[in-house]
Amino acid sequence: MTVETHPIFRPSLTAQSGSDRFFLTTSDGGRAVVVQDSCIRWCNVSEPGYHSMTLERAFKDVKHVVMSNSGEFLCLYNDDELRIIEVPWAYTEVSSMANAFQLFRFVSDEARIKQVLFHPLAYQQETVVILKDDDSITIMNWQDFGDSKPDVLNLSNGTYSLDSSITDVECITFSQDGLTLYVLSVSEGADIYAFYPCLAPRMQFDKQGLDRLMYKSLIQYDVLNVGTDSEVKRNTIKQLKFVSGLHKQQNSQRILEIPEAQRQVRGQGPFTIAPFPKQIYSSTGTGIASLPINDQNELLIMSLDDGNIAILLQDLDVTMNWDSARYNYNNSFALVELITLGSQEIQQIVVGDHKYGQFSVMTPEGVFSIDTSKWSGVMASCLTESDLRPLAETKLESEVTFTELKDSPKSVAWWNTTPQSVVKVSNREVKSKQVSEGVSKQDDDITGSRQEPEKYNAHYSQPIAEIMQLNQKFQLESSKAPSKVIPPRERQKPLKNEASEIQLDLLTEASKDFVSKIAVGQTLGVTLHNRIYEQQLDLTHQLKASGELMEKQQTILTHFHSQSSRSDAVHARHSTLMSRFNKFKDNLGQIQNSQRFKDLEISKEEVEWFKEIRKQVLTFNRDVHNQKRLQDQLIHLKQEMNRIAQVTGDQNSQARDEWHELRHMLEEDTIILQDCNNQLKSAARQVPAQP
Q1: DSSP for residue 280
Q2: Does the keyword Protein transport apply (predicted)?
């Protein structure tokens, strides 16, 4: 069964004619969902069938459907309403309890809904970000909607003035780390702004991501100087305090609660684009999307109404902004590539979850598949390693293919079977294309265009990061005061009194605190002892290897001196020959220019002499070729003999080791016997000769 013939794509019997059909898959491509009208279908892509559920309350004119990162929830929305639906993956028959999976419904009474996204860092995907046609951005906790007030950003007639708001917002998208919300404004063509950080009420950070954010904030703080703008200083310091608080909070609890004051951020930008192509000066933006190129770096894709696609790289690190209006610091993009598709209408950019550097562009005629992995993989490796040299030899040109459909496409998603495919779905047609080779997001090994030389890596039983964490814990425990402090009155009393029980109780509690601190210190001491011991062994190994290299270096130097003297002799002989050759060449030139020698005829003896010279030259050339062939045979025989000697040496290595061990044992026995003999002689001298 092919992808196109899978039953999940069959027309719904309850769907109205001409209704839109949306197709989505989970991030691993292993589970698929099809939404049409009020019917939701789901299946595992490896199974031949599917399951379905009909919404209790019909939902018509669905504008778009988005899936959470975990694949557990769907958000269906149109201009006036959105619904959150839980996908019942573990159930096969849900007709009797369909209402239990319809978790949330929101009706917008004021502005119309333009776009909805799940917040990628929200705890249990409980937060959605809603863009409305009044340019406001609402951050809503749908699981706690009745008890909490949504956060609204970019207000034009509310908390902030009109000058600080971003107008004519066309599209929003999250960055790869989930902290930056990029905004596309079309008021002046195509301007990109950012809300950083864009936070949910409850968040769940990846430890590595939070550590990277902490290191970046520290670096931004360290580069501040006297000439830095006051707004930049204030935001940078506030960012460092905020990230430090998150870091401490994560160590004590799994869910991070974000206060409302820290969730109210302000936009920054617009971002500059350099170089800015002349052909898009009069163009208007239609959409933006984030394109990951490895697990840490990303590109930003911007589509324009003239059919161009701009691929941008953020070349500077921005700072968080809470208070400053029209804040603009390090808001810069570098234009990496401008792709012209020829179509005058780009509907949507779809970034798949299957491969780094690949995305699709939907147009009314079909779907363009764009693969940047040939150069974006090299760029990602260069950015990770801070080495741009391989990028200079790379051609920044993407691969573009087109798939034509009978009607306007609605969805593009990854279908993870064998072979893996990218599926394009419209209301009347389904087409699939096998995934091209690239760097998979499920593969942690990100490779570039060059092969790294093999490096020596020391392997220890415990990483240094854990030891440093244990050290920090010990330092923190050591700096803490005892949990119970003896009151001043009790301190003045002698122990032999009626209140001695109270004093002993306090001393017992204090001793427990000290014992716990000592235990942590002992654990740290043992850990450091083991680490130092392992490092000593590693140092021994490295010193041994260094000694072997130095011995080889000495041997090489010895050969170098002898070969250098031979080379000098050869050069001196070469100089002598060259002087004789030049003299001979001058004589030949004089002879050639002499009219006397031109008039002379070649004698019979000279002809015979030249023939003999030609014969000798041919013989010499033949002997040279024979010598080269024999030399190659000797080199081959030498290599074979070395290989045989190495094999024989490996077989006899154990016997040599046993012989050296026996020899060492005999030497020790000899030393013991000599000591014993010396002691006997000394004792004999002390005994008198006659009793």
Answers
A1: G
A2: yes
Could you tell me if 411 and 24 are in contact, meaning their C-beta atoms sit under 8 angstroms apart?
yes
Q: What is the pLDDT of residue 495?
A: 63
Indicate the SS3 state at residue 525.
helix
What are 641-690's pLDDT values in tens digits? 888 877 776 666 777 777 788 888 888 888 887 877 777 777 666 655 54
Residue 365 pLDDT greater than 80, yes or no: yes
Tokens of 437: 């080779």
pLDDT-above-70 percentage for the chain: 86
Q: What is the pLDDT of residues 549-577, one digit of tens each?
A: 888 888 888 888 888 888 888 999 999 99
DSSP annotation of 14 reads S
More confident residue, 97 or 234: 234
399-415 pLDDT, tens per residue?
999 888 888 888 989 88
Write out the DSSP string of 100-154.
GGEEEEEE-SSSPEEEEEE-TTBGGG-EEEEEETTS-EEEEEGGGTTTSPPEEES
Element (H, E) at 412: strand 409-415
pLDDT at 463: 46
Q: State the DSSP string of 572-622.
A: HHHHHHHHHHHHHHHHHHHHHH-HHHHHPPPPHHHHHHHHHHHHHHHHHHH
- Which residues are 41's β-sheet partners? 34, 52
Given a contact cutoff of 8 angstroms between Cβ atoms, the answer to whether 323 and 266 are in contact is yes
Q: Name the residue among 262, 75, 296 with its Cα closest to residue 175.
A: 296
3-state SS of 635-667 is HHHHHHHHHHHHHHHHHHHHHHHHHHHHHHHHH
Domain residue ranges in the chain: 7-434, 468-559, 610-674
248 to each of 221, 243, 448, 480, how far by Cα in Å?
18, 9, 36, 16
Q: What is the mean pLDDT of residues 119-123?
A: 93
CATH superfamily, domain at 7-434: YVTN repeat-like/Quinoprotein amine dehydrogenase (2.130.10.10)
